[in-house]
Amino acid sequence: MLEAEFDQFAAEYQQQHAASIRLSGEKPDFFARYKIRDIAEALDGKGVKPRRILDFGAGVGNSLGPMRESFPDSQIALLDPSMQSLEIAEKRFPGQARFQHFDGVTIPFDNGHFDVAFAACVFHHIPEELHVDLLKEIDRVLAVGGSFFLFEHNPLNPLTLHAVRNCPFDENAVLIRASVLRQRMAEAGFDKARIVYRIFFPRIVARMRPLERFMTRFPLGAQYFVHAIKVAA
Prior knowledge:
Blueprint: H1 3-9, H2 13-20, H3 28-45, E1 52-56, H4 64-70, E2 75-80, H5 83-92, E3 98-101, E4 114-120, H6 131-141, E5 142-153, H7 158-165, H8 178-187, E6 194-198, E7 223-229
Parallel strand pairs: 1-2, 1-4, 2-3, 4-5
Antiparallel strand pairs: 5-7, 6-7
């Protein structure tokens, strides 16, 4: 993971992100909130109330506000290789999480420490040869029965491709098909993962969004997530 690259963009992340997604008609907060809402709904459906949550590749902390609203009693750790990003996150949300630097190889927590882990559009920034080892690390720190949610941009969606091509901090990004990512997760020990496609309609036709719950298997959503439950130590 490229610490220097993300330090370079940390201070301007919000503005650059907002500019890159302007065709969606939404602000970055919309994308952060829908992800946490999806996680909360999935966990509520199984009666799970997580004690400890890992935000892998948390950046400047865009997901922390929605996480605190959905999981007010959980301990939350934000993990990132960019110290500058973590410093910005801590200034935005002082005392609301643990802000933990990451060396890009070993997650500095004990085996089985977390009940939930998630990564929000992180892996397209990581060289593909590192994916399986990092996924194994996430598996290691996840408790048996814990959930891992991995959100990514969908390279089959034309608006997503436009946003990525026009975003400075995505200059070196390599988008990943959901089926490829699910296979890498399986290699890391996450079996029986499910793919859910999300965000089919821009804001201009937001009235169509209630239909999205019937379209989660249709592989043209702007983003998707892969959800796996750890079944063995």
